[in-house]
Design brief:
Two copies of one chain form a homodimer. The first copy, chain A, is of the alpha/beta class. Helices cover 38% and strands 18% of the residues of chain A. In chain A, helix 2 links the parallel strand 2 and strand 3. In chain A, helix 1 packs across helix 7 and helix 3 crosses helix 4. Chain A is globular and about 55 Å long. Chains A and B meet through helix 4 and helix 5 of A and helix 4 and helix 5 of B.
């Protein structure tokens, strides 16, 4: 029986991953500091005797290394995932992403774990010159502190794979949607429309082109990769084979909610400083391993709106952390 | 009169840069913790009233920000520059390069400095698939903790340029040689041959192909870039238009020293784990601005050997730091 160590296991993707790993017969150690993780995500899992929940911080290297003992593989999902407000607290991405990842890698060395899967982001391509963007796109320029920190994490992981004989898979995600989703633009839109169904304020001109992936499709890909980890190190884009505009997503959301808000746009091609107005990843590499996404972007958006509608508590649970 | 703030200004490249900046009529604030910097490099400069030496650490953000007040431009050269022994102390590159660069950028924000030039490395291209390697080479995989940390610094600088309106030039150096050179393979070879002119031990098979640049040629390029900083952010390879093998450099060194050692090779195409066996950078971009190197690799090696021969103290000055 394999033991999986999941950082950020009480988060959106991590919580879903823990559930799937348990279903697949793994023992799971969930490590989370609950800064954005939710006890509601882990509570249903705690009935399973193969699930162990540890409340810990990645910036506590001793407890981290101690907690990791006995694990076979690390799924490193914990991160500050807020892209937009990075400039308001520039140390956060450095500490919670870059330094935290260093600590995860050092804990792996200390506890003898050699396999890692990592959630990176398509944002590392910056304003990509090649779209759809392949994994070996031209050397990118970072436009956000978030993406810069994820790039730093990727560099650390690859250097550890080279230097210490680790095996690693880095997954560059598009935005992930689905049950448990607790931040991002669909969240913001539903949040606004709950407060006032008659008005929606949209950052940018609404023509930003983005790609999304349903969380279970994302986890399918990661589980597949865990079964065929690169001998040393590999990078895999995870996304669907299409994109939509922010205006498309607004149509789907408002239709699902049955509202017809007046929409105001802040204007400009970018939602905020550092936003990439067109994200669309080439996914031939992961598809060549037999993976395919099951849900379209529209279906993923609809599932997300349904989840948010049925789980009003998530709007209260998101606190002051974001700002 | 421009005021230049030089981190690592008591180091090999930094010391030479401070001297050139003073010659060019700059005021210079040299900030160095003397972990590898040498008082012998700064002593001759202290006679100049435009030169201010501050003994400080980049991991002391308050003193750093205080020291930077009044500067117009930051030349961020301080770094742990040891590539080979990174795996022996994996926190060093993270702290002295990545976190230190974050602190430099934050100090710039705090003190209102908006311009930065940064010494990065051709090692960020890893085992480059394209040689000579252009700035927009395919997204690389890091093979050393040193290069991973420099990549992280580049990402931070570009994100600050995007997010806070900084202007930055990142220079990706090949190995730099010349007066003041205090570590690297030419240093090691001369050090060995001083101790025993009859024998030389070489890491790898000696066929590693590397490129080198004379320190004054490097500084010429950086001074040029300071005069035409990109509006936002730009990356520039700095190197010569050729490469040599380690065996070539051994020939030049032994000839200059007049010794005929027996040479033993440890074997393998890499000098150490993570070493890149072929580094050769495309330099069209910096050359298009009017720069050209003046010295060949052979001349740079000879100048370096001459410097080392005349300055035996550098062998004693390098202490236990490296290990």
């Amino acid at each position: 029986m394999r033991t999986s160590f999941v950082t950020g296991g009480a988060g959106f993707i991590g919580g879903n991953l823990c559930a799937r790993l348990l279903e697949a017969g793994h023992k799971v150690i969930c490590y989370d500091n609950f800064s954005t993780g939710q006890a509601r995500f882990t509570e249903p899992l705690e009935k399973n005797s193969n699930f162990k929940l540890l409340r810990g911080d990645l910036l506590d290297p001793d407890f981290l290394a101690y907690s990791m003992k006995g694990a076979d593989v690390v799924w490193h999902l914990a991160a500050n995932a807020d892209v937009r407000f990075g400039l308001d607290h520039p140390r956060r991405d450095l500490e919670q992403n870059t330094v935290a990842t260093h600590n995860v890698l050092e804990a792996m060395r200390a506890s003898g774990v050699k396999e890692i899967l990592f959630s990176s982001t398509g944002s590392v391509y910056g304003d990509a010159s090649l779209i759809p963007t392949p994994e070996d796109a031209p050397f990118p320029v970072q436009t956000s502190l978030y993406a810069a920190s994820k790039l730093a994490c990727e560099g650390l992981i690859s250097a550890y794979c080279e230097g210490y004989g680790f095996r690693g898979a880095v997954c560059r995600f598009v935005s992930i949607l689905g049950e448990g989703y607790t931040h991002g633009h669909v969240f913001d839109f539903v949040c606004q429309l709950r407060a006032d169904p008659g008005h929606l304020s949209v950052l940018g001109d609404g023509y930003q082109r983005k790609s999304y992936l349903y969380v279970q499709d994302c986890i399918d890909a990661m589980l597949l990769l865990e079964g065929c980890l690169p001998e040393k190190y590999g990078v895999f884009n995870l996304g669907v084979d299409s994109y939509c505009t922010v205006r498309d997503s607004i149509e789907w959301i408002t239709e699902w909610l049955g509202v017809k808000p007046e929409i105001s746009y802040t204007g400009g091609e970018r939602g905020w400083v550092g936003d990439n107005p067109f994200i669309f990843l080439e996914t031939k590499k992961i598809r060549s391993l037999g993976w395919a996404h099951k849900l379209s972007i529209m279906q993923a958006v609809e599932r997300t709106v349904e989840f948010l509608t049925r789980n009003g508590w998530v709007f209260e649970a998101r606190g002051e952390y974001e700002r």
